[in-house]
Specification:
21% of the residues lie in helices and 31% in strands. The chain has 262 residues and is of the alpha+beta class.
Length: 262
C-alpha cells in the first residue's frame, strides 16, 4: 500500500505544470544533448531510418521528435483499408457498447468524457476503437489513417498524466482528463475521430498541418513526449479489424478494413 501511494504521488507529480515545465525546458536545451546517444542505445532506436545522423541533433527533444527518411513507411493504398496513424503498440481495441462505455486496463470510460460532448459521443456508440500507445522508442509523428474531410478540431483537458502502464493504473483516468486534441473526419465509410492524448506536458501535441483535407498517410503533427492516439469509428456492420491487441504497428500498416462492395 505504501509503495502504491509513492508511485501514485510520482505519477501525479509528473502531471503538474511546474515539474512538466522543468522537464520541457531541460529536454529542449543543449544540456540534454549528451543523453541522446544513451537514450538511443537504451531504447534500441533504428538509427538507419532517421532523416539525420545521431550527432546532428542539438537536444533530446529534437531527437525525440525526429523525422524519418522518405520512404521509411509504406502506406497501404487500398481505398477500403484503415491504416495505423502512428508507430506504436495496440494497447486496447474493441467495440464501444451501446451505453457509450468501454474499458481500458480495467477502468471504465464514457465516450462523453473523452469527447466532452454527449452529442459527439452518440455518433460512436456501438462503433470500433483502437488505442495506440507510443513508447519512448517509437517515431512520434502522427499521420492520417484514411482519406476524408476534417469537420472539427478542438482541445480538451488541462493536465497531463503519463499514459504508460503505470500512469493508466494510478493516474486520474488520463484519457478522460489529460490534455487531448480531437480531430473528427468525415469519410466514405462514416465519421471517425482521432484523439491525440498528451503526456507530461499540456503542449505535447503539436499540429503541423491545419488543412481541412485529410490525405491517407500524410503527416499532420507530432508529440513532444510520450503519448497515445485513440481512434473511434462510427458503427458499420461491414468493418473488420485486421490486427490483434498488443500488436506492434507502424504508420501506414493496415489495421482494419471495410468489406468491398460486391
Amino acid at each position: 500500500m505504501v509503495q502504491r501511494k509513492l508511485f501514485k504521488a510520482f505519477v501525479e507529480l509528473t502531471g503538474r505544470p511546474l515539474s512538466s515545465s522543468i522537464l520541457k525546458t531541460f529536454t529542449r536545451s543543449g544540456i540534454s544533448r549528451p543523453l541522446i546517444q544513451p537514450f538511443s542505445r537504451y531504447f534500441e532506436i533504428n538509427e538507419k531510418e532517421m532523416e539525420r545522423p545521431l550527432n546532428t541533433y542539438d537536444s533530446l527533444n529534437s531527437f525525440f521528435t525526429r523525422n524519418l527518411k522518405e520512404g521509411s513507411r509504406v502506406i497501404n493504398p487500398s481505398p477500403d483499408t484503415l491504416v495505423s496513424p502512428v508507430d506504436g503498440i495496440v494497447n486496447g481495441m474493441g467495440t464501444v457498447n451501446e451505453d457509450r462505455e468501454f474499458y481500458i486496463k480495467g477502468q471504465p470510460y464514457q465516450l462523453a468524457d473523452i469527447f466532452g460532448s454527449q452529442q459527439k459521443a452518440d455518433r460512436y456508440a456501438g462503433g470500433f476503437f483502437y488505442i495506440l500507445y507510443l513508447s519512448p522508442s517509437h517515431y512520434h509523428h502522427f499521420h492520417y489513417p484514411f482519406d476524408g474531410d476534417i469537420i472539427s478540431r478542438y482541445a480538451l483537458g488541462n493536465v497531463s498524466y503519463p499514459v504508460n502502464e503505470l500512469g493508466l493504473q494510478l493516474g486520474d483516468r488520463p484519457f478522460a482528463t489529460n490534455y487531448r486534441l480531437i480531430s473528427e473526419m468525415e469519410t466514405n465509410y462514416g465519421n471517425m475521430a482521432i484523439v491525440k492524448v498528451g503526456a507530461l506536458n499540456v503542449n505535447s501535441v503539436q499540429i503541423r498541418n491545419a488543412s481541412k483535407i485529410a490525405v491517407k498517410g500524410e503527416e499532420f503533427g507530432h508529440f513532444s513526449f510520450g503519448s497515445t492516439v485513440i481512434l473511434f469509428l462510427e458503427p458499420r456492420s461491414d468493418f473488420r479489424p485486421l490486427i490483434q491487441d498488443r500488436t506492434d504497428v507502424k504508420v501506414g500498416q493496415p489495421i482494419g478494413r471495410w468489406a468491398p462492395k460486391a
